[in-house]
# Entry
Amino acid sequence: MNIPNHTIKLKNLLYLFGVLILYACVDAVEPEFDFEEGIVYIDAFAATDAGASYVSITESAISNGDYENVFVPGANVSFQNIDNGEIVQLMEEGERYFPDASFVVAPGQSWQMHVEFPDGRRYMSDVETVLDPVGINAINATYNPELLFSDAEGTFVPGHFISVDFDDPVNETNYYFWNFESFEKTLFCERCEGGIFREGQCQPNPPNVRRKSYYDYRCDGDCWDIETSASINIFSDEFVNGNTVNNLPVGNIILFSKEDILVNLWQFSISKSAYDYYLILNDLVDNNGSINAPPPAALLGNLSNPEDPDEFVLGRFTAASFSEATIFVDRTNIRENALEGRGFIQVEACFEVCPTEGCPPSPRPGTCVPVTNIACEEGRFRTAVAPPGWIEQE
# Structure
């Protein structure tokens, strides 16, 4: 059976969190916005697969009249196994906090998150119990030249939607949550704007030297960029309990580029409280389009400040199991234009090692030496190891 799912537009959520909308009771009025500073937002996941757990911490601020959510560095972040007391420390990396790459939770375990800000403020989550996962029978990618409407583009944009088939368990209530990571091959590992790549980093152009506005530098071998999806999809089995669900849309791959892409999809089994929380976030996004829409239910996560119970802490800690499915998407024959592109490639072909008098015998003055290609730095956002399921095209 084909059933629409709820899609949460994450790029709008943090903005909405800091905005208190005053709704009119009868007559339509211009909305008023009260931007508040110091609102804490924590988004956290502890998962049954290595590398899928993380904590994101931001705090609302007003800078030069603009409202923004600022990453909170230097926090002490940990997961605690309530069953045996084990404490797992997370480390800061790329404006997120991550446990060791081998960290996993297991179905039946109970976990709690603890956060301490550099200024001493402390936050904690309720205890979350990990549920059993539900397997994915099949995954599909379907191209649509008008995949969804983009406010930024002012028109419909092309791309693929990802759909899944799965057997919903009999005689139990289940709630689902989908997210995915994608892998795209890249030839260039660095672009230096207004500078050149030397000694492992981009450096400003030397004075009185005529150079191009930017240079691109090739990777020294195969390299893939890793992205995590910017939307969350949820689903309740209220009307399909115990049935097989087919072709359920669970994510969108917008055509930002025409490079082939490999998608690892995660199907989480979550609690009712987690589902209710994400459903309210979805309602916030949907209702924001109409100033006369009734306000959604209270946004209640599972986070609190133990020393200040009156502080309103946004976000949620979720401990969940998931099943995984992978699909390779060939995008070479798509006719529509990609939304983004790297633009004109400007490669720094070579540089003069010693352009002035007094150089040593070798290299001789003015010698043009090829620029060394850049290593594909292994990490959470880039890898030199071909992801399982990748198909090399000729």
Remarks:
- The CA atoms of residues 50 and 102 lie 5 Å apart.
